[in-house]
Amino acid sequence: ARFVENAVVVAFPQALGFAGAANAGARRARGRILVFLNSDIRLLPGALANLVGTLDAQGDAGICGGLVLMQDGRVQELGGQIRFNGSGAGRFRGVDPMASDLPDREYVDYVSGCLLAVRRSLFLKLRGFAEAYNPGYYEDTELCLRAWAAGHAVVATSRAAALHAEYSTFRRSLNGDLQVRRQMERNHRVFLRRNE
What we know:
Blueprint: H1 17-28, E1 33-37, E2 41-43, H2 47-57, E3 61-69, E4 75-78, E5 80-82, E6 88-90, E7 105-107, E8 115-119, H3 120-125, H4 139-149, E9 153-164, H5 168-173, H6 177-194
Parallel strand pairs: 3-9
Antiparallel strand pairs: 1-8, 2-9, 3-4, 3-8, 5-6, 7-9
């Protein structure tokens, strides 16, 4: 709230995980578009305006994500695709965005919750992120699948870019890379059970 005018800070006595905290924040929000950002994201100029502008311009879209860049500037993802085994893969991962012709806007299977804009009415209709995935991983993927099933497209735009310190939040909270991998594997199994 020190840096953003009209920001409301909501504190909880215990950690709620990404889905729990995002859902709690969404219940208090009043805007027509909700934007979810990880604490390890640094937005590049125009990112928020382009996320919102893409949703406004693409009437069939209910969710929009942006161009997520790794700390070295290479692409982490421009949306994701779900593989045959239910695992996710970031599109264009490892590509140099300056040397590539990235699409301005494309339909994708899902976008990452680290940089995700969603129409508030749709988020409430879908009952938010599934908290079965707490503390994190795959809640964003399932939300996007539910949006598609409800007739709302998911798009990613390269015009909304952000730098991401991938895994850093969970690496600290889960005490290292091994626990992050275990959490991802656990939630992959949860995702498969919930989406058979």
